[in-house]
Amino acid sequence: MSVTEVSNDITDAFPLRRGWQRDLIGVGIIIIAAIAGYFLFPNNLALLTRIIAILLLVLSLDLVTGYCGVATLGHAALFGAGAYAAGIAAVTFGMTEPLSMVAIGALAGAVAGLVSGVVILRGHGLAQLVLSIAVIHLFHEAANKASAYTGGSDGLSGIAPDPILGLFAFDLWGRTAYVFGILLLVIIFAVLRILVRSPFGMLCRGIRQDPVRVSAMGASVKASLIKMYVISGAVAGVGGAFNAVSTQVVGLDSLSFTNSAEALVMLVLGGTGSLYGAFVGTIVFVWFEDIVSAANPFHWLTIVGALLIAVVLFAPKGLYGTAVTLVERYGRGRK
């Protein structure tokens, strides 16, 4: 039995609840929210641009954790690989065209995803978490030691991207970077929705729910997971490259364990396995963190921790997942 046939069987067993119309509505909401953010927060575009970069990381994490059930605390390795690849290409090799830098970041992220996936997928459960932590620390130390290219603990600076398509220069207010990020986000989100609705995406859903059954049907579980890890790495690499383009600096914090842990927290906060949850979790976490840290710079972590505990206790499916469940329950009640 071919992988396509197995995927079709999985699609029959685990049907999608959302149609293409809802995906188009989702893209429309993203565009409307982006336009609203541009005009409502013109002095805070740097924060919105940062949210876009982090959101790409969380979306990539949702592919392997939400859709494949792979536990990882080292996903920032893929994000950092894309950031450093784009930065090194610009500083060392003079490749400062933004689209080329993003493409290089995607390629580096995909390679890092392949390497990480081969290592992490050798374990299961707790072993996967330990291996993922080891991977992020190895990537971090490798970047620190290669200071001739990465700048080490001082970071990689001097990144000066050219105008996009030779027409749109990056300005001090971050308008060009913000619009560029929104375009990348919309394109990637649309592609990922097509991916997760495809037979391959449904195969990965089936692996998450019952890997033994999928294997018995003739599909290669490990090969499918590695493929998704590579795709996830490319998405995270785009996020890292975009972060390098928008901030024009790359630091070791892009490869930090904290970055990986926060990405997982954002995903859990919004809800796994939908992509939409990644949006909700990232925006709520980063925005809440920004507001609370400004209001109470000494105890803001305690407040953020209280929020996360409340969500886990009262909304175990995440903010988006719980909202969807309540809406569906209300809809069935009216019938």
Automatic annotation (TrEMBL):
It is a multi-pass membrane protein. It holds the Pfam family BPD_transp_2. The chain crosses the membrane at residues 24-41, 47-64, 76-95, 101-121, 177-196, 264-288, 300-327. One of its GO terms (cellular component) is plasma membrane. It is found in: Cell membrane. One of its GO terms (molecular function) is branched-chain amino acid transmembrane transporter activity. Keywords: Cell membrane, Membrane, Transmembrane, Transmembrane helix. PANTHER family: ABC TRANSPORTER ATP-BINDING PROTEIN (PTHR30482:SF17), HIGH-AFFINITY BRANCHED-CHAIN AMINO ACID TRANSPORT SYSTEM PERMEASE (PTHR30482). This is Branched-chain amino acid ABC transporter permease. It comes from Phyllobacterium sophorae.
